[in-house]
Amino acid sequence: MGAADGSIHGRGDPAHHRVRRLPAPHHGRTRRRIGEGLMLPAVRGHVGPVGAVAGGAVQAVTGARFAPGFHAELVARNRAVTILHGIRMLEHAGNLRNLRRLVGAYDGPFEGPRFADSDVYKTLEAIAWELGHQESEELRRFYDENVTLLIDAQREDGYLDSAYQRGEPFGEPWSDFAHGHELYCLGHLVQAAIAGVRALGDERLLGVAQRFVALVDRLFGGDDSPVYCGHPEIETALVELYRLTGDERALHLAEAFVRRRGSGFVAHGDFGPQYYQDDASVVETATMRGHAVRAMYLNAGVVDLHLETGDSALWDAVARQWADLIAHRLYLTGGTGSRHRDEAFGDAYELPSERAYAETCAGIALMNWAWRMYLASGRADYVDVMERCLYNVVLAGISESGDRFFYSNPLQLRSDHGASQQESAGTRLDWFWCACCPPNLMRVFATLEHVMFARRDDEIQVAHFGNAALALDGGGTLEMRSDFPSDGRLLFSVAGDAGAATLAVRMPAWSEGCAVVRVDGLDRPTTAVDGWLHLGALAVSSNIEVEFAMDPVVWRAHPGADALRGTVAVTRGPLVYCADQADNTLDVERIVVPTDPVFDVELGQGLGTLLRLEAQELDVSATSSPLYVRADAPAPIAGPAEVALVLRAYATWGNGGPGVHAMKVWLPRG
């Protein structure tokens, strides 16, 4: 996590790219009109959630897969446990009954939040990607039954939303753009439909999505419409629909929603205009503010729009906001959002550990935004942040068993923690009333192979590390073997014809520039350029080894982060570490660590590597002293004995048995 300047980020400036411009909205012929049929060949598990982009420095690739190892286990757990658990919970929570109300198969009341349909769509998307990996009778049955249900439930004019379609309980359709989430739900429907086509060659859900988009275009696509959704998501989905179908009306609609934001159309909502990113236009915005998930979903869509239109003002806007995020508002774990009431970004350096909201969905949103920033620019530091999110705040959001979840992800929890809301629970829960995070996690793990590699002309870029393989244009296969994230050693080989492919490997910021490259056992001095080790042409006979340093690193925060002053945190490779009371006999709420700790590394598989260091406990009398004492009173002192303190990967905390137990990422320094 350390760049050359000693920070956890930073690698140069993005380049702008010359790409084609859009014609005027609704003028001229399009390659495919929204709502018309689409005949595409089935591509099973190859093209991912982001297809070929017009203006990217880098392109996503097809043909990646995992070999047995840590990432394959994440995917297998998702398939065998998390998705099946989600199916049961969608039934239990009423999401599916809400849709059955629309076809007369259920006559009870609406249940859950008004955006409950979106969790069904996210689950269908994850299932489509998984069926593209491997057939499953149970997953196929759920997919087919609920695609049929959606076809039957859709209104003749294309409208589909169980919260509004019957005129109750939330009113008539299109009556609340600030909080109604109708366009947000449509965005997730579109993404599920795209997954059905790309993974399965199944166009049924695409027809449903296209009819709904066509309705939205008729109602709100004109220049005189002020409409956009209070919760962004539809923007990135519409751009991807354009990439799939070639229908430029979807792109124009996405552009309209982006251009209109900032007019104050949804600013009347409960939390004020910043919450909805409605206080300024997209191109005028310089800071990350408001609801964290909304802000980053919006920015992912803005990057998508930039990639297809070449509008440099859009890129400049998201680049400014990215710089603000990295410099002022990002938790060490990749978490975002320091305010619970509105799930929002705080002020610059407002990063309290105990009150970190750091929603799991926000970690996923930042991953999605970061991937698009990388595709647009080719910069490795965007992948660094994406990696930090995945291995910390995102993986912390799900239990090792795969069926319990955190909604928020604080960096400290006290042993007496109590919560009045599910979102701030001290232990992982099996589901939530607002259950956006679990099906979002399903989507992440079902598509993880699609972000391992990318292509820059003939160069294959290894963005993320693990046991994986990539089909090459020449007919051969690039194989990567690694015990990452527990080990920083990568082994590359080629089976078959590599064609003209060359290889580049990301130099992760956490390696602090320390890497050893060997080709066929011989050291090859290699210097990273713009965060990439360019290793040249791939040859069948060659074996390439890249080894990154993974020593523990101790960090302190910027002095402006008042809540973190006087504390340090520890990382190893991409993993942030924490003290979990379940691992320790000493009281982690009273620990003090030395200024220059020495670590013993106990290697484990996956996230299982533990760190041990000597620490001290504050004298127990210090914790029973008055809440406030005079500044000239004797300060609390640490006990004389040094005791071994165990640190574990933050992503794994809270798996050590029932009940709330203390945890800390930032540790007081003696």
Automatic annotation (TrEMBL):
Keywords: Hydrolase
Originating organism: Microbacterium rhizomatis
Record-annotated Non-reducing end beta-L-arabinofuranosidase-like GH127 C-terminal domain positions: 554-668
Domain Non-reducing end beta-L-arabinofuranosidase-like GH127 catalytic: 67-448
Record-level GO BP terms: carbohydrate metabolic process
GO MF term list: hydrolase activity
Lineage top rank: taxon: Bacteria
Alphabetical list of InterPro entries matching this protein: 6-hairpin_glycosidase_sf, Beta-AFase-like, Beta-AFase-like_GH127_C, Beta-AFase-like_GH127_cat, Beta-AFase-like_GH127_middle
Ranges of biased composition (kind: Basic residues): 17-32
Entry annotated with the keyword Hydrolase: yes
Region (Disordered): 1-33
Residue span, Non-reducing end beta-L-arabinofuranosidase-like GH127 middle domain: 460-537
Protein's UniProt name: Glycoside hydrolase family 127 protein
Keyword Hydrolase in record: yes
